[in-house]
Amino acid sequence: MRSKIIPISNVQRLAEAADALLNRAYGMPGMGLVEGPTGYGKTTAVAWLVTRVNGVFVRALATTTPSSLLDSICKELGIGKRSTNVATVEDIVRKLAETGRPLFIDEADYLADKRRLIETLRDIHDLATVPVVLIGMHGFRRKLTPLQQLTGRIAQWVDFQAASEFDARVLARELAEVDVDDALVGKLHAAAQGSVRLLVVGLAQIEQRAKNRGLRKIGVNEWGHGDFFVGVAPQGNKVVRPMLRPVSA
Questions:
Q1: CA–CA distance from 6 to each of 13, 42, 45, 177, 200 (Å)?
Q2: DSSP for the chain?
Q3: Euclidean distance between CA atoms 103 and 151, whole angstroms
Q4: Distance of CA 168 to CAs 11, 47, 194, 214, Å?
Q5: What is the reported pTM?
Q6: Averaged over 157-166, what is the pLDDT?
Q7: Which among 17, 82, 87, 195 is least surrounded, fewest beta carbons within 10 Å?
């Protein structure tokens, strides 16, 4: 399997939103929100974007406090944390304003009910005038709805959707080192239920089977009735999905 980011629909929309935030008119709000179910490729796509725009990336935890969040941002910026949060915020704002680097907060769901943390991020956005992007699970946007001072600053919302069959064909063409027939891709797409993670896992299985048999092209007949996913057991009409990191968004 090739290891690279493929510009499927979710990645394209994320890139477009980032460009809009980075090139917005002076005085326009510059916060963004990315949400979607697990397995849809958010983390991988955001990691690609952070590298592309030289962003500052930190991850929130259940135990995150204003002080620990500021400490994480300082480490990513390569600056020391001051003795007070107020002074630390001033240094962070100064550094971000100087560099123009956007700030990304992953697992931001943990912050939704921590008003001081949210207000700290809003202050950093307002004072540094750089994009601040929050990444969370499906339903994160709804959690923020009561915080009108924050939501009024969110100019770009990216809701990661289930991968389409077209997306699956693009992934198969760009990632697999063998030719995967469209009918087999369609079967994999139906089994993956829109999960990019499972599509990548399934493509790896398909590729390995083709290579084991010396095939340069594999279709439904060659695949047979094998399981697309390692460690996945069907339960009724549902699929138990493994917690595996995809090699691509």
A1: 12, 13, 9, 14, 11
A2: --------HHHHHHHHHHHHHHTPPTTS--EEEEE--TTSSHHHHHHHHHHHHT-EEEE--TT--HHHHHHHHHHHHT----SSHHHHHHHHHHHHHHH---EEEETGGGGTT-HHHHHHHHHHHHHH---EEEEE-TTHHHHHTT-HHHHTTEEEEEEPPPPPHHHHHHHHHHH-SSEEPHHHHHHHHHHHTT-HHHHHHHHHHHHHHHHHTT-SEE-HHHHTT--SSTT--EETTEEPPP----S--
A3: 17
A4: 13, 21, 9, 23
A5: 0.84
A6: 96
A7: 87
- pLDDT at residue 113 in the model: 87
Nearest to 219 by CA among 208, 230, 210: 210
Q: How far apart are CA 78 and CA 94, in angstroms?
A: 13
